[in-house]
# Entry
Amino acid sequence: MEVKVTMTTEYEKKELQLTVDAAGDRQVGQLNEKSFLFKTRAWIRKIGAEEIGIERIPEEMRTNQNPRDLFTIFFSANCNAPTLALGFLGPTLFGLGWWDSFCCLVFFNIFGALFPAMVACFGPRLGLRTMIIPRYSFGWWPAKILAILNCINQIGWAMVNAISGASVLYDVGNGKLPLTVCVLIIGLLAVVMSLFGYKVLHLYDRYSWIAVIICFIILAGFGGSHFVNLPMGSGSLEASNVMSFSTTIIGFEIAWLPVAADYGVYMRDTTPDRKSFGWAYAGFLSSQLFVELLGAAIGTLYLSSNTYFTDAYDDRGIGGLIGACFGVYGSGARGFGKFIEVLIALSCVAVITTNIYSLGLSVQMVTRKLVIVPRFVWSLIGAVIFLAAAMAGRDHLEEAMSDFLLICAYWIVPFATILLLEHFIWRRDYQYDLTAWNDSTKLPLGIAASVAWIVGTVLALLCMSQVWWVGPIASGIGGSPYGTDISWILGFVSTTVVYIPLRIWEQKKWHRF
# Structure
């Protein structure tokens, strides 16, 4: 017997119809009222969370959301401890001085922020989540592989972000609050926030950045007189370190690309690209540049002649250095500094929420059968996985961050290159068949994109420069005992060279646009 689902509003009926269409299964619309899925969806609606997943958001469901929200969500998600830790790597991991760290951060952030900002424009114009858009170049099946990689990407980033915040919270407890508990506190707060979805994420990020940026300004004020003007290096070793640091910076920026369009899908499709791009670019660049420069300045304290700072770092890592910026002025300032540290630690909630939210969307891309399970559930499962990973890797922040940043760049740069080449060469003015997003017969086969992506990724891996393996191209360049990492440059160039002629051939051969 068919059981009809009772919906209270036309909006809820539309939400269910979108899920039915995305899953390709009419039984979704006939869920038994006693089933787990029906009860879950009813509960999600009751608490006011977002029920829709990867389904395209049609024009009639759009709102008058201001594109300025793209600035606040990306600014908030980057104005935090992990971004501070990235700048910190310049002096501490790559051995750069203050001014060469400064120049690297300025130049490569200006360049790197372009790519996620361009993809952020796709959300309002297409109403599609980011990892759906590769179907228009990679085709149906290869796009699923990218979705799986993005799931790993988001879990890894959530882990790194949680550990970054926990390292600061650990210092607040003077090392007596276990790092595992610190990770758990930050992770659980972020998970609760992420489960509510799009509307709540934007609401929180619209205001959370204000308190955090004030905290960073205060931190800069207290630490400013103690920062060390480390001398700039020279020669082949310096050039190698600069290139390796550039890969880390680009990896941090471009890691946002697979989720950048997720946060504008409810905006009107008439939103001008210049506004979407401008606000998104400003959000990425201003937050990362300011906070990373502060991180590099704090990193110079690691090499300070004042043992108070070096002892603090050896004892409690980057969190210890942040605390030492206040503690050097006495117990009163130290007490105030702990309050600032708590807010900086909790700033990680803004970025982890985006990781978990977008993770749930990517899971639904793997197969249509997973669409009927709400994004809420997949985000919850992903949260359990990332919390377990974060607690296991809690003592290895710098290693996890530097290794994961570089690994992101290895596959995301070729992927981003293909996505943007397809858009600007073959789909100018948004020539996307929006009825084809979930129909494999209307999509390209993806031969050109797959081959170009594999070539670009393999060449990037050959440029890998890690402590656990140095690729032959990286070691051949020399300049450093660990080689020189030029993966993002070679990945971009090789992907472009291979993709354009192959895409022309593929289109002529099969006539599938």
